[in-house]
Structures are given as C-alpha cells and as structure tokens.
UniProtKB/TrEMBL annotation:
Lineage: Eukaryota, Metazoa, Ecdysozoa, Arthropoda, Hexapoda
Residue ranges of domain Ig-like in the record: 22-136
Keywords on record: Membrane, Signal, Transmembrane, Transmembrane helix
A Pfam family hit: V-set_CD47
Signal sequence, renumbered to the chain: 1-20
Name of this chain's protein: Ig-like domain-containing protein
Amino acid sequence: MDKFLAGVIGCLLCSCYVHGALKINSIIGPEYIEDGTIDELVLDCDFEANNETDIVVKWFLNGQEEQIYQWITDMGTANAMGPLKDVIDPTYKVTQDEATMLRALKFKEVNPGISGNYTCKVSGDNSDALMTKQVIVYSPATSFDIALILGTDGDETILCDAINVTPKPIFDLNIVGTNDSTEWPEGFIVNKTEAVDSFGYYNLSITLPFNSSYLEEGTTKFVCSLSIPGTNYSETKSVQRFIDSGTPAEIEMNDYSENITVALNFTEEYRFDHGDNGLAPLRYSFITFFMLIFPLLLIT
Ligand SMILES: *[C@@H]1O[C@H](CO)[C@@H](O)[C@H](O)[C@H]1NC(C)=O
Ligand SMILES: *[C@@H]1O[C@H](CO)[C@@H](O)[C@H](O)[C@H]1NC(C)=O
Ligand SMILES: *[C@@H]1O[C@H](CO)[C@@H](O)[C@H](O)[C@H]1NC(C)=O
Ligand SMILES: *[C@@H]1O[C@H](CO)[C@@H](O)[C@H](O)[C@H]1NC(C)=O
Ligand SMILES: *[C@@H]1O[C@H](CO)[C@@H](O)[C@H](O)[C@H]1NC(C)=O
Ligand SMILES: *[C@@H]1O[C@H](CO)[C@@H](O)[C@H](O)[C@H]1NC(C)=O
Ligand SMILES: *[C@@H]1O[C@H](CO)[C@@H](O)[C@H](O)[C@H]1NC(C)=O
Ligand SMILES: *[C@@H]1O[C@H](CO)[C@@H](O)[C@H](O)[C@H]1NC(C)=O
Ligand SMILES: *[C@@H]1O[C@H](CO)[C@@H](O)[C@H](O)[C@H]1NC(C)=O
C-alpha cells in the first residue's frame, strides 16, 4: 500500500483512539432577549473533558480571530479582552468545580450592542472542540402603524411605518384580495424606505399609492408585518378597504350617490365607517358623465 495512504488511514484510525477527548454539550443561555427585560446574561459553555490536560477555554465573537475571553483552567483567574472587555465579568463562577468554574461569559449589562455569534472553544493537549450560538438582544418598534390616506379622484395611499427597531427586521406589505387572492393587482407598486442610526436602530416605511378603481369589488385587506429573524418578535397591522357597487346598471339611472357605498375598515383605533360617495370608483363617475352630461351636451 502507498505509504501516504497508509499514513492517512493510520492517522484516521489513531484519531479515534486518542486518549484525551473534549466535547461541548451545549452553550446554555437564551437565543434572544427583548431589550430591557433582564439586567444580566450568562452564556455557559458546558463541556466535558476526558483524560485531557492543559485545558484552555476561549470565547470568540462573530468569527473573529481575537478572543474576547480566556481561561487557562490550571489558573484560578480568567481575562476578558477586546470590544466587550468592560461588559464581561471574568470573575463570575458558573460552577463550584475548579475544572469548570470560569467557563461562562457573564454580561454585566444587556443591550442590543451585545447581539452576535458567540463561539466557545475548549482546547487541550490532544484535542479541541468548539460551538457557536447566536444571541440577539432586540428592541421592538416604539411605534408601528398602518393607515389608509384618502385623496381625491380615487387617489389613495396605504402608509405603514415602524420606528426605532433593532436589529434589522423583515418588514413587508401584503394584500389579501377578493377570494383570498394574494396577488398584487396591476398598477400597485410598493415603495419601501429605511433609515438606520449609528446604534443600528431602524426606521422603516412602506408607501403604496394606488387608484381605488383598480380594486376588485368586495373587501381588500392590506397587511403590514414586522418581524426579527432569530427571535419570536412579530407584529402585524392591517387595514381593510371595502368596495360595494350594488347593481351598477340601474344605479346610474337613478341617483347613484345613494347606491354606491365605500366602507373603510380599519383595525384597532382606526375603525370607522364611510357612506359618502366622493370616493366611489372612478368608473362610475365616467359612466355618470356619459349618462348625465353627454345627453345635456347633445341637447344644447
Ligand atoms: C483515560 O486514560 C486511561 C489510561 O490511558 C484509560 O485507561 C481510560 O480508559 C481513559 N478514559 C477515557 C474516558 O478515555
Ligand atoms: C450569525 O452568523 C450568521 C451566519 O453567518 C449570520 O447570518 C447572522 O447575521 C449572525 N448573527 C449576528 C447577530 O451577527
Ligand atoms: C383613477 O383611475 C381612473 C380610471 O382609470 C382615472 O380616470 C382617474 O384619473 C384616476 N385617478 C387618479 C388620481 O389617478
Ligand atoms: C371569486 O370567486 C367566485 C366564485 O368562485 C367567482 O365567481 C368570482 O369571479 C371570483 N372573483 C375573483 C375576483 O376572482
Ligand atoms: C419612495 O418614497 C421616497 C420617500 O417617500 C421617495 O423619495 C421616492 O421617490 C419614492 N420612490 C418611488 C419609486 O416612488
Ligand atoms: C426615526 O424616527 C424617530 C422619530 O421620528 C427619530 O427621532 C429618529 O431620529 C429616526 N431615526 C432615523 C435613523 O431616521
Ligand atoms: C417570546 O418568547 C419569550 C421568551 O421565550 C416569551 O416570554 C414570550 O411570551 C414570547 N412571545 C411570543 C409572542 O410568543
Ligand atoms: C338605488 O337607489 C334607488 C333610489 O334611491 C333605490 O330605489 C334602489 O333600491 C337602490 N338600489 C340598490 C341596489 O340599493
Ligand atoms: C370590518 O371588520 C370587522 C371586524 O374585522 C368585520 O366584522 C366586518 O365584517 C368588516 N366589514 C367590512 C365591510 O369589511
């Protein structure tokens, strides 16, 4: 057999029989926290070591090469360094066992600035092990609202905005039309804007200008949703737009203003009713023009 191949196989076999063995069971701690709900946070690197010597526990942030915490287990003290040096308490003992007591990261304060991917690496003379956990400290939007703004001539706008949310959320506007259709009708273009400050807080807005004559008869629901991936934070707000046209053919012959109603259906504090015809779909104005004005023109 090829010497190199033999070497490789030997090495693979041999690695199975190495005396020392290190294993990280889990990083114990929350995956996400709402900002302001807790004052302190512990990430505990729960590892097992068998026949391993000179064990060192290191923590890393966001895959960076420089550790933010180090404990040489033969020594009774640990050190925090790097960007979170002032936030981490290197004297915190998570167990009473001298072989594991300083393995955890304890944050003396909890705010969105500590969000990140934390890697615990445990190394010994014969082996090492590592594990990463994402921790997100999020801040819900201080305000999140949807509104339907009425203009003239069928001109309407949906406006949804979310203020001061971190980290970057997923923010979207969806439509649920007649027959539960979720396709955007033609002529609907969603305009999204976002601004972020130096602390990573986002202001987001969606505007959707449209012409009410593009809506189908029945109820159309606009649903604005906000969520932060990696957390259970999510909020939705919706507004419903109801278009009832009665029986169009007869309506224009009579007094169409009493036959066409436009109802706005808002969720929560925005709910109110609207019976006025000023907002009626423009196609009726058009028909009215021909039925009422055109004959007049002919007469004169
Ligand atoms: C530890 O090493 C000793 C001596 O080398 C061996 O007998 C024992 O099985 C090892 N224990 C483990 C858990 O690997
Ligand atoms: C953690 O790492 C993943 C994968 O690289 C990345 O998508 C995510 O944004 C990181 N999380 C944080 C809080 O930086
Ligand atoms: C809305 O659509 C109708 C019919 O297509 C059109 O006549 C009207 O001018 C439009 N209104 C606005 C504000 O664009
Ligand atoms: C909705 O469904 C009804 C019955 O299935 C159908 O007659 C109607 O055309 C549908 N409307 C739209 C806008 O698809
Ligand atoms: C989107 O909205 C922003 C701010 O309201 C505006 O400046 C921009 O022109 C809009 N973009 C489009 C494509 O309508
Ligand atoms: C977000 O909106 C709030 C309130 O209007 C404002 O105080 C803050 O400066 C805005 N932040 C950004 C990044 O635009
Ligand atoms: C999100 O998770 C936290 C803690 O795990 C829990 O207290 C809260 O009720 C959850 N919220 C929702 C909306 O599920
Ligand atoms: C429309 O209005 C006329 C007169 O105001 C009324 O007689 C008729 O019943 C109405 N039609 C509908 C569908 O409401
Ligand atoms: C308005 O919303 C309420 C509650 O969601 C519902 O019961 C009602 O039928 C809706 N009205 C219209 C006109 O869509």
